[in-house]
Design a protein that fits this description.
The protein is an alpha+beta fold and 707 residues long. Helix content is 46%, strand content 24%. The strands form five sheets. Strands 18, 19, 20, 21, 22, 23, 24, 25 and 26 form a nine-stranded mixed sheet that branches. A five-stranded antiparallel sheet has the order 2-1-5-4-3. A hairpin with a 5-residue loop joins strand 9 and strand 10. It starts with a helix and ends with a helix. Bound molecules: ligand C2E and calcium ion (CA) (2 copies). One calcium ion binds next to loops. Ligand C2E binds next to strand 19, helix 18, helix 19 and strand 23.
């Protein structure tokens, strides 16, 4: 260790002082964390302890006798330091302690916190002592903190949570994307921004990965404070302490909604036709596949309509592709306007379009009619004049239709629709054809039937027939009104054939009105004659008719207009009416009941009646369906059902009547089960009113004879 002047200055002092001095010297020399240097006024180094060697890189030998300014003062602060040193020697005091950036022997910066003191002893040159604490690691840590802080305030939304997931810090980008300020977010958990787009299992998997690997990355849909949901690319990193325990989580998120939008755009290119913006063949095939699966689930039928423009090539060749493109766009618009929201219009390419109809009726013929109606609508919409610039163009199309359900094959279906379209084309333009010939016939027939029915209403071709209802002695107590269609050139048409079509087309409303009105007029007429004054008349009411909003008013109006006694009118309803809106049905029944109208439940036992509903209905009568009566003898099941219905009517306080009674044995059997009212060929077929009238008169005569 070098000789130190200041201490030698004290050698003349007392011995005890020497001991103390020695102690201080050792302390100074070896003070590990504190670099201590001594300088003369001209900067000459006179003291250099061990810590100084470490911090500045010069050994004491190298430093002693050297100059402060040359050794550790960087050029840019030389003057300043020189001035400060001079000032300190002149004033005899140190400048305030502070941070300095000095220089190591090998040139790098040394950050120190420096304190200074000037020790002046008489007869000795004054010495400036500098005590420098090494701040390098602190400065490094500070720099790292600054870097971390800058990084934290990056473009990415970031937040830090504790091990329990409670948010400790969020950055500005987080606030910008989520809308939550630091004050609002800190103390909350990330649930704050959670959307309900992911199942719980998604988050569970995320946590599992974090616990296992300390890392998770993935896409998450979050919710902004405004409620808007956005796509995020999230990176979560667990921070562990030296023991390996997780102390924090750092989560950074990038809003990828825009990227998602871009993806959507790419999707659009891949699945949509750029010219018309309609789904392309690829998407159509995909949807068709799904539609087939759906039809298997809900048992509905769907339809494919293959649409091809007539003469498109000619237009393209004569007026140019530009005009052709514009026409295709207009066709696309018209097609889209023709269909329901859930249906699909696609462009296959060229002038070929496909329309897919889903969720048609469960019955094939009915679905075929619906598909045909859609096809006709399209034919009509596309067969209007197109205006393209100055050109007026009248286009037409040919449509091929095929139906699909459950096990259809996509390629096969396309082929069928295509084939049908060619059929349509070859049969003359602007027409449509079904792939299936039977279907084509059925549809044509149905269309004819509907036309015929409309005409029948106008031309009054409907007749009301009356079938007697009798008591246990065979006395006629009333009749059921059954409608017939006297079709010119055909003869009597059964209601079984035309009621379903009337129901689908809505024609049942005017038809039902006519039946009710005719029946009530008959009742009023009967009231005037002794042989028929007490008869009841049963009238069938279709569910479609009953469900009309003004049904109750209609019946009351008819009763009022005809003057019929409501007590003698019995409306026959079927169980299918009771599948939905039971409360509404009960309300309507009750309203009519209040006026005296009676109700019979027709075809009882064939439907889905729930006893719970049945009890709530204001019924008067159950009608045992004729299928049970028919099988009474051969099928123990039918007999059991008949028995149950009869018992049920008794417990519910209702009357019971059996229909379709054709033989005496059936009648006797029914009587033995407890049913004493009957209707059927055994007692009389449905008859025109004059013939029923004759029966009634004959009955009066026999009764009188018996008396
Ligand atoms: P429904 O109400 O069950 O009518 C009874 C049907 O059984 C009638 O057929 C009748 O002719 C037939 N029938 C009567 N006795 C016997 C018998 O002993 N044996 C056999 N095998 N059959 C018998 P119809 O007149 O052809 O009527 C068929 C269905 O058409 C009716 O079934 C009813 O649901 C409906 N319908 C008839 N007229 C009307 C009407 O005015 N309005 C409404 N909405 N539906 C009607
Ligand atoms: Ca009936
Ligand atoms: Ca019936």
């Amino acid at each position: 260790m070098a000789e130190i002047t200041p201490y030698s200055a004290f050698r003349d002092e007392k011995h005890s002082r020497e001991v103390s001095e020695a102690r201080f010297k050792k302390l100074f020399d070896e003070a590990d964390a504190m670099s201590i240097q001594g300088y003369l006024p001209n900067g000459t180094v006179v003291y250099w302890n061990q810590a100084s060697e470490k911090i500045y890189g010069y050994t004491a030998e190298e430093a002693l006798g050297g100059n402060l300014l040359d050794l550790i003062i960087p050029a840019d602060i030389r003057q300043e330091v020189e001035g400060a040193v001079n000032w300190m020697f002149e004033s005899g005091q140190g400048i305030p302690a502070g941070r300095l950036e000095l220089r190591h022997k090998n040139g790098h910066a040394v950050h120190v916190h420096s304190s200074h003191t000037v020790i002046a002893i008489p007869n000795h040159p004054p010495v400036l002592f500098c005590m420098d604490a090494d701040m390098s690691s602190l400065v490094r840590a500070e720099a790292e903190l600054r870097i971390a802080a800058a990084a934290f305030e990056s473009q990415q939304g970031m937040f830090i949570t504790d091990a329990q997931g409670v948010i400790l810090r969020v950055n500005q980008a987080f606030t910008l994307t989520t809308g939550y300020s630091a004050e609002e977010a800190v103390g909350q958990t990330p649930r704050l921004i959670r959307s309900d787009y992911h199942p719980a299992a998604y988050y569970e998997a995320m946590w599992q990965s974090l616990l296992d690997t300390g890392f998770w990355q993935g896409e998450i849909w979050n919710r902004r404070k405004s409620g808007e949901v956005y796509a995020n690319w999230i990176t979560i990193t667990a921070v562990r302490d030296e023991k390996g325990e997780i102390t924090h989580y750092v989560c950074s998120q990038i809003d990828i909604t825009q990227r998602k939008d871009a993806e959507a755009q790419i999707m659009h290119l891949a699945f949509y036709d750029p010219l018309t913006r309609l789904p392309n063949r690829r998407l159509l095939l995909d949807r068709l596949q799904q539609a087939i699966a759906a039809s298997a689930r809900n048992q509905s039928v769907g339809a494919l309509l293959f649409i091809d423009l007539d003469n498109f090539k000619t237009l393209n060749d004569t007026l140019g592709h530009d005009i052709g493109d514009r026409l295709l766009q207009q066709v696309a618009e018209r097609l889209t306007a023709c269909i329901r929201k859930n249906d699909t219009v696609a462009r296959l390419g060229g002038d070929e379009f496909l329309v897919m109809l889903e969720d048609l009726s469960q019955s094939q013929p009915e679905a075929a009619t619906q598909a045909e109606a859609a096809g006709r609508k399209i034919l009509e919409a596309l067969n209007q004049i197109y205006q393209i610039d100055n050109h007026k163009y009248l286009g037409s199309v040919s449509i091929g239709i095929t139906l699909f359900s459950r096990q259809a094959n996509v390629d096969e279906l396309l082929k069928q629709a295509d084939l049908a379209m060619y059929e349509a084309k070859s049969s003359g333009r602007n027409s449509l054809r079904f792939f299936d010939l039977e279907m084509q016939k059925a549809v044509t027939l149905r269309a004819e039937l509907l036309n015929g029915l409309q005409e029948a209403l106008r031309e009054q071709q409907f007749r009301l027939y009356y079938q007697p209802q009798v008591d246990h002695e065979g006395h006629i107590t009333g009749a059921e009104a059954l409608v017939r269609w006297e079709r010119p050139g055909v003869g009597l048409v059964s209601p079984v054939e035309f009621i379903p079509v009337a129901e689908e087309s809505g024609l049942i409303k005017p038809l039902g009105f006519w039946v009710l009105e005719t029946a009530c007029s008959q009742l009023a007429d009967w009231a005037l004659k002794p042989e028929s004054a007490a008869l009841t008349l049963s009238v069938n009411v279709s569910p479609v008719q009953f469900n009309c909003a003004d049904f109750v008013e209609q019946v009351l109006e008819i009763l009022h207009k005809t003057g019929a006694n409501a007590q003698q009118l019995k409306l026959e309803l079927t169980e299918s009416l009771l599948v939905e809106k039971v409360d509404e049905v009960i309300a309507k029944m009750s309203a009519l009941k209040a006026h005296g109208v009676g109700f019979s439940l027709d075809d009882f036992g064939t439907g889905y009646s729930s006893l719970a509903y049945l009890r709530r209905l204001p019924l008067d009568q159950l009608k045992i369906d004729r299928s049970f009566v028919r099988d009474l003898l051969d099928d123990p099941n039918s007999a059991a059902i008949a028995q149950t219905i009869i018992d049920l009517s008794q417990t519910m306080g209702l009357s019971v009547i059996a229909e379709g009674v054709e033989t005496e044995i059936q009648r006797v059997l029914l009587a033995s089960l407890g049913c004493h009212a009957y209707q059927g060929y055994l007692f009389g077929r449905p008859l025109p009113i004059e013939q029923l009238q004759e029966l009634l008169i004959a009955q009066v005569i026999t009764t009188e004879l018996v008396i």
